[in-house]
C-alpha cells in the first residue's frame, strides 16, 4: 500500500496541502490579520453599536460558513484561506471579549483557560496524527485539528495581550515591543541554536496574536488611552487593504505554495 493509500484508509480523503508555505508573506499577513481581528471586533461591537452578542452571532455564522468553504476545498486557495484566518481572528477576539466584558471573567482566568484548551488540542492532534507540522495538512481530520488550534491561539492571544497592556498597565506600544522581542527570541532559538522547527513555529504563531492585537489597539485607541488615535475604521481599512494586495499577489505568483511531494 503506497503512502497516499495509507492516508486515505486511515485519515480520510487525501488532499493537496491546505495551508501556505511559511514565508515572510505568511507572517506579514498573519500579523495584519490579528490586528484586523482586534480592530474589526471593536468596530462592529462598539463603533457600529451592534453590541457583543449580536456581533458575535453574526461573525460566528460568517466564519463557520467560510470555514466550511475552506474545508471543502482539496488544495490551498489563498483568498479563501486568508479570509478564514481574518474571520477566525475576529471570532477569537469576540470569544475572549464576551467572557471578560460580558461575563466578567478575569483576563488571568481566560488566559489560563485558553492555554489549557490549546494544549489539549495539540495533545489530541499529536496523539492521533503523530505530527503537528503544517506541512502535513493533507486530510480533513488534520485540517480540523489545525483550525481548532488556530481558534484557541487567537482567543488566548487576545486575553494575554489585554492582560499585559491593560490590566498590568504596560501600555499598548510597550506590550507590542515585548511580544515582538519574544518572537525575535524564538527566531533566534530556531536559526542560531537549531531548536525544533515545529515547536518554534507554533510558539511564534501564538505570540503574533497578542503582538497584532497590541499594534491594533495602539494605532486605533485615542491618545488619552495610550494610542495614536487613528480609529478602528481607518486601521481596519488600512490593514485589510494590505492583506488584500498581498493575497492577490500570492494568488497570481504562487510564491507560497508547498510542493506536494514535500507535503507528503
Automatic annotation (TrEMBL):
Q: Which InterPro entries match?
A: DUF347
Transmembrane region(s): 24-45, 52-70, 76-95, 102-125, 145-165, 177-207, 227-250
Which branch of life, at top level? Bacteria
What's the protein here called? Membrane-anchored protein
Q: Which UniProt keywords apply?
A: Membrane, Transmembrane, Transmembrane helix
Write down a Pfam family by its short name: DUF347
- Organism of origin: Labrys wisconsinensis
Per the record's keyword annotation, is Zinc-finger included, yes or no?
A: no
Keyword Signal: yes or no?
Answer: no
Amino acid at each position: 500500500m503506497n503512502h497516499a493509500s495509507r492516508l486515505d484508509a486511515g485519515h480520510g480523503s487525501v488532499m493537496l496541502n491546505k495551508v501556505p508555505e511559511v514565508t515572510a508573506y505568511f507572517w506579514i499577513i498573519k500579523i495584519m490579520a490579528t490586528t484586523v481581528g482586534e480592530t474589526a471586533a471593536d468596530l462592529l461591537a462598539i463603533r457600529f453599536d451592534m453590541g457583543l452578542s449580536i456581533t458575535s452571532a453574526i461573525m460566528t455564522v460568517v466564519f463557520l460558513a467560510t470555514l466550511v468553504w475552506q474545508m471543502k476545498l482539496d488544495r490551498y486557495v489563498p483568498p479563501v484561506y486568508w479570509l478564514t484566518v481574518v474571520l477566525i481572528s475576529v471570532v477569537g477576539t469576540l470569544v475572549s471579549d464576551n467572557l471578560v466584558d460580558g461575563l466578567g471573567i478575569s483576563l488571568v482566568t481566560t488566559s489560563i483557560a485558553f492555554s489549557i484548551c490549546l494544549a489539549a488540542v495539540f495533545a489530541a492532534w499529536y496523539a492521533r496524527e503523530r505530527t503537528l507540522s503544517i506541512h502535513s495538512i493533507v486530510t480533513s481530520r488534520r485540517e480540523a485539528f489545525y483550525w481548532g488550534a488556530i481558534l484557541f491561539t487567537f482567543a488566548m492571544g487576545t486575553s494575554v495581550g489585554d492582560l499585559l497592556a491593560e490590566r498590568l498597565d504596560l501600555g499598548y506600544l510597550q506590550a507590542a515591543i515585548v511580544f515582538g522581542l519574544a518572537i525575535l527570541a524564538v527566531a533566534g532559538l530556531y536559526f542560531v541554536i537549531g531548536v525544533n522547527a515545529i515547536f518554534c513555529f507554533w510558539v511564534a504563531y501564538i505570540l503574533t496574536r497578542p503582538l497584532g492585537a497590541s499594534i491594533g489597539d495602539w494605532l486605533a485607541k485615542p491618545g488619552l488611552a495610550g494610542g495614536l488615535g487613528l480609529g478602528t475604521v481607518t486601521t481596519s481599512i488600512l490593514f485589510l487593504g494590505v492583506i488584500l494586495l498581498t493575497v492577490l499577489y500570492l494568488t497570481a505568483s504562487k510564491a507560497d505554495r508547498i510542493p506536494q511531494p514535500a507535503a507528503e
